[in-house]
Amino acid sequence: ETGVTQSPTHLIKTRGQQVTLRCSSQSGHNTVSWYQQALGQGPQFIFQYYREEENGRGNFPPRFSGLQFPNYSSELNVNALELDDSALYLCASSSTPLRATDTQYFGPGTRLTVL
Amino acid sequence: AQKVTQAQTEISVVEKEDVTLDCVYETRDTTYYLFWYKQPPSGELVFLIRRNSFDEQNEISGRYSWNFQKSTSSFNFTITASQVVDSAVYFCALSDVKSSNTGKLIFGQGTTLQVKP
């Protein structure tokens, strides 16, 4: 069974640029969630994708957007990068989106640094 | 309001000591789920356990055990005979009916555990 994978591992961007992060879900999972984890903090929910549509969203501005593809992989796009966007971005996959019973399994994350 | 509080920011123990990580949660829902994740220095969140609000039985898995008490809204995690490999940041998380409709897990701030040899 293949776990959740993310790319790239590390990324350095400058303020105002745009970035795309990628995630492949665990085998058999059709739902992907994205989280932002600032240094020393717990992960914060950005949004979730199911059947190629955004299923739920946390308190993040519209410049954070995403996509899900037919193979359930997903992208997180961030436009007009700000210094505060520097964080570890975690992707999690699960088998269904709407039940609290389901466990989200996380990937290794992408470390984004904005200069 | 939904909230998870991990009051212990950092804990340091010597190998073979037992250690308990505290987690207190807030939710208005009667149906909810609680989770513990481990985050080693590599960054990946590793799933440890999920419990539902209707099952207050304590659970033991090897050196790990969990104590769920609805009366005090706590879901504490104990590592028995700690090892250096247990050194990591541990997160408690909540998913209730409201948050589950968006797929949202609500995390605490995390507790950094350092186990010294």
Short description:
The complex is a heterodimer of chains A (115) and B (117). Chain A is an all-beta fold and 115 residues long.
Task: Provide key terms for this protein.
heterodimer, A: mainly beta, globular, B: 117 residues, mainly beta, six-stranded mixed sheet, four-stranded antiparallel sheet
Strand content of chain A: over 45%
What's the count of strands of chain B? 12
Helical fraction of chain A equals under 10%
Helix content of chain B: under 10%
Count up the helices of chain B.
1
Shape of chain B: globular
Structural class of chain A: mainly beta
Give the rounded overall mean pLDDT of chain B: 92
Order of helices and strands of chain B: EEEEEEEEEEHEE
Q: What kind of assembly state do the chains in view correspond to?
A: heterodimer
- Low-pLDDT segments, ≥5 res of chain B: none
Radius of gyration of chain A: 13 Å
CA(first)-CA(last) distance of chain A:
38 Å
Structural overview:
Chain A has 115 residues and is mostly beta strands. Chain A has strands spanning 5-7, 10-13, 19-24, 31-37, 44-50, 53-57, 64-68, 74-78, 87-94, 105-106, 110-114. In chain A, strands 2, 4, 5, 6, 9, 10 and 11 form a seven-stranded mixed beta sheet that branches. Chain A has a four-stranded antiparallel beta sheet with strand order 1-3-8-7, with no helix packed on it. Chain A is globular, with a radius of gyration of 13 Å. The mean pLDDT of chain A is 92. The radius of gyration of chain B is 14 Å and the shape is globular. The longest helix of chain B has 4 residues, at 97-100. In chain B, strands 2, 5, 6, 10, 11 and 12 form a six-stranded mixed beta sheet that branches. A four-stranded antiparallel beta sheet of chain B has the order 3-9-8-7, with no helix packed on it. By secondary structure, chain B is mainly beta. Chain B has one helix at 97-100, and strands spanning 3-5, 10-14, 19-21, 24-26, 32-39, 46-52, 59-61, 64-69, 74-79, 88-96, 106-107, 111-116. At the A-B interface, strand 4, strand 5, strand 6, strand 9 and strand 10 of A face strand 5, strand 6, strand 10, helix 1 and strand 11 of B.
